[in-house]
Amino acid sequence: MTTTAVRSAPPRRGVAGASAAALLAATLVTFLGASAAPTPLYALYQEAWGMAPSTTTVVFGVYALGLLAALLVVGRLSDHIGRRPVLLGAIALEAVSVAVFLAAGDLTALIAARVLQGLATGAATAAIGAAILDVAPTLGPIITGAAPVAGMGLGALGSGALVQFAPAPMRLVYAVLIVLLVAEAVGVARLAETAERRAGAVASLRPTVSVPPQARRAMLVAAPIDIAVWALGGFLMSLGPALTTQVTGSHAPLAGGATVFALTGAGALAIVGLRTVPAVRVMLIGAPTLAAGIVILLAGAQFGSVVLFFAGAVVSGVGWGAGFQGALRTVMPLAGPNERAGLMSAFYVLSYLALCLPAIAAGIATDRFGLTAVTDAYGVALIVLAALAMAGTLAMSRARTATAAGRAD
């Protein structure tokens, strides 16, 4: 039986164009902001429930594993049933997860909330990314690159501020998130559908990673820098508060959130600032900048220098933003309209494996070897990945130049 496109009724009229892209970007920011919101709270959870550093990374890791499961199962679903129904379902599940956070009183509830949150975010990211590319093909890769990075930074910093200065430090941030999610659900319900219904929705639920043949080489070249930037993000979002306390001597929740914000805020600015630079050149900027930033950050951690530590986070953030954007812009334009959600899922599968698995390993190692030693080893591994990314990108650039010269001859 062949799979053919099945045209649905014409999409109903609704929010479209620039307004739709803005709403989708804001929703993506909220999802990723919610994922980082618990980061400044980990110290409070550790104190209240006696959690070890390794437990913190496990709590962080189960979120990413839930996200990966959702990407593998429903990552291509919006290519078949439409973007809007998948996104509305994801928002509903995210609201449930935030409600569990709000009521959490022990580690079990916290883990359950993180698993649900991962499933919701995984379902949302591929659908939102594909929808943004539908309504804004030119700016889509920029938005899908900047919004997650900005969301994580704003989520960590905003949560830290609420935890430190507002009442109900373990509850208020989750109440704010529920309000945002409800408002965005109303907006998404009014969106004009951008994807035609196609047969094969049930078959699309079979776990798979879908990289179109024409995108495989670019994906291979982009992989090292993508792994490096997300592994750094996972480390700072799980063990960052403990490392910040060690360097600064401050136990303030805002300090831990500030470290994540320094990384992701600089990353978001780099994505916007480099949006008109060719993708390969952006990756060539990102890899060495990431490596340099990690060296500075490690020096700050080693010598207890607050200035070096935060400067390293900012420089690393520039490398993160450039590396992630360059990778995304190198890979995603190679997908056809009905391949976008599948390729976006594959890209995020790689990203979130890099986000969770190294961080979990680092947390377990920290219990045995100490945070400083693990930070140094982790940083060296990321520098090696950045060097591999630089070499691969240079090779791809030279190959393209040679191909272009051959055609000209």
Automatic annotation (TrEMBL):
Subcellular location, principal: membrane
UniProt keyword terms in alphabetical order: Cell membrane, Membrane, Transmembrane, Transmembrane helix, Transport
Superkingdom field: Bacteria
InterPro entries: MFS (IPR011701), MFS_dom (IPR020846), MFS_trans_sf (IPR036259), MFS_Transporters (IPR050171), Sugar_transporter_CS (IPR005829)
Residues in Major facilitator superfamily (MFS) profile domain copies: 19-404
TM annotation in the entry: 52-74, 86-105, 111-133, 145-166, 172-192, 218-240, 252-272, 279-300, 306-324, 345-365, 377-397
Location within or outside the cell: Cell membrane
Matching Pfam families: MFS_1
Topology with respect to the bilayer: Multi-pass membrane protein
UniProt-recorded name of the protein: MFS transporter
UniProt organism field: Nocardiopsis suaedae
